[in-house]
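I'd like us to work through together how a protein chain folds, taking it slowly. To get us started, please write out a protein record for me. Label the sequence line and the structure token line clearly, so we can match residues to local backbone shapes. Once you have written the record down, we can walk along the chain together.
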Amino acid sequence: MTALRLVFLALAIWGTVHPMYYFVSWFRENGFDLAGMGAAWNVNAAASGLVWDLTIAAVTLTIWVLVDTIRRRSWLDLIAIPATFCIGVSCGLPLYLFLRLRHADSR
């Protein structure tokens, strides 16, 4: 495994654990209230801007994963889509790059 793949794997793990710490903390304080979390994400213009930034990045990543996966017929790479929407772009993007580079390692 290349050093670059290890970096992407480490970033995918960090991109899972670090945001989840805050999500779990929020749920502990407020209960499992997705509507409340959505309202918190739009508490002001700065927060709304970040939400839209990440939403657009997630949609862009999803389109890229779909097109690239179909072209290369590497179906395992599709796991990056639920990772992106269930965890976040901070997990989905480095996970996809980690998976995609496995083809370069096998050459």
About this structure: The chain is about 80% helix and 0% strand. The two ends are 12 Å apart (CA to CA). The helical segments are 3-30, 34-41, 45-72, 80-86, 89-105.
